[in-house]
């Protein structure tokens, strides 16, 4: 089978095993293999793209690599939470830098204002349940996450009807899905357990990463 055809199916299979393991439907130890494997498969998907934009490709791959590190840390939800948070925060900085190459940072202020309002609303709901020792790291993370999603949307808006629009649209969808995934994770951790939380958190997370990887032009 053509690797380009097989890769999405292998990624979906690996993600499905991880979700099932985290949901208690399969042995929990399988997540220690298949969670990092899923992100590695997304890195493989990104690796074969973006040859005509080497700086953007490098930054996206750095972001995915840091996300892989965060995935490993979060296999231990308590001890690994802060290291995982820091890994993903730096990953978002790499994504922001990647999305600033085709579009100036915050070139569409209204887009940033909309994401700032959304992030503020989410934090407002979460704040009472966040332990005081975690409030500053969580605040810094939310700011970086919202800026990443907003900058991806700015690139999409700036590229409307242009050659970059299909790739920028994928980045914007990926940014929005990342916000959805991390919001679900935060509500599940700091407010109340969500039904089928592993399904919704991991599904939106890997769809986000796949879209961000897909924002690189195909060779």
Report what the structure shows:
There is one protein chain. The protein is an all-alpha fold and 219 residues long. The chain has one domain (3-214). It has helices at residues 3-22, 30-47, 54-73, 81-100, 109-126, 132-158, 165-190, 197-214. The mean pLDDT is 96.
Uncertain parts: none
Basic shape: globular
Count of alpha/pi helices: 8
Major sheet: none
Q: Could you state the order of secondary-structure elements as H and E?
A: HHHHHHHH
Q: End-to-end span in angstroms?
A: 19 Å
* Binned strand content: under 5%
Structural class, by secondary structure, is mainly alpha
Rg result: 17 Å
Oligomer: single chain
Whole-number count of domains: 1
Helix content: over 70%
Number of beta strands? 0
The average pLDDT score comes to: 96
Label this structure with key terms:
globular, about 220 residues, mainly alpha
Could you outline the blueprint of secondary structure elements for this entry?
Layout: H1 3-22, H2 30-47, H3 54-73, H4 81-100, H5 109-126, H6 132-158, H7 165-190, H8 197-214
In short:
The chain is an all-alpha fold.
């Amino acid at each position: 089978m053509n690797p380009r055809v097989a890769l999405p199916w292998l990624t979906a299979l690996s993600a499905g095993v991880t979700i099932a393991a985290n949901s208690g439907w399969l042995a929990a130890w399988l997540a220690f293999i298949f969670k990092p494997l899923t992100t590695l498969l997304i890195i493989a998907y990104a690796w074969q793209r973006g040859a005509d934009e080497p700086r953007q490709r490098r930054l996206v791959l750095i972001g995915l690599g840091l996300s892989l590190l965060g995935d490993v840390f979060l296999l231990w939800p308590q001890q690994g939470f802060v290291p995982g948070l820091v890994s993903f925060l730096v990953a978002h900085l790499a994504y922001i830098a990647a999305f600033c190459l085709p579009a100036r940072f915050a070139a569409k202020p209204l887009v940033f204002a909309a994401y700032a309002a959304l992030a503020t609303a989410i934090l407002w709901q979460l704040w009472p349940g966040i332990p005081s020792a975690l409030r500053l790291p969580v605040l810094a993370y939310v700011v970086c996450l919202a800026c990443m999603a907003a900058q991806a949307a700015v690139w999409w808006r700036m590229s409307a009807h242009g050659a970059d629009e299909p790739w920028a649209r994928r980045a914007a969808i990926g940014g929005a899905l990342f916000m959805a995934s991390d919001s679900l994770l935060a509500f599940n951790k700091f407010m109340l357990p969500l039904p089928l939380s592993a399904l919704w958190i991991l599904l939106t997370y890997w769809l986000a990463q796949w879209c961000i990887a897909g924002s690189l032009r195909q060779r």
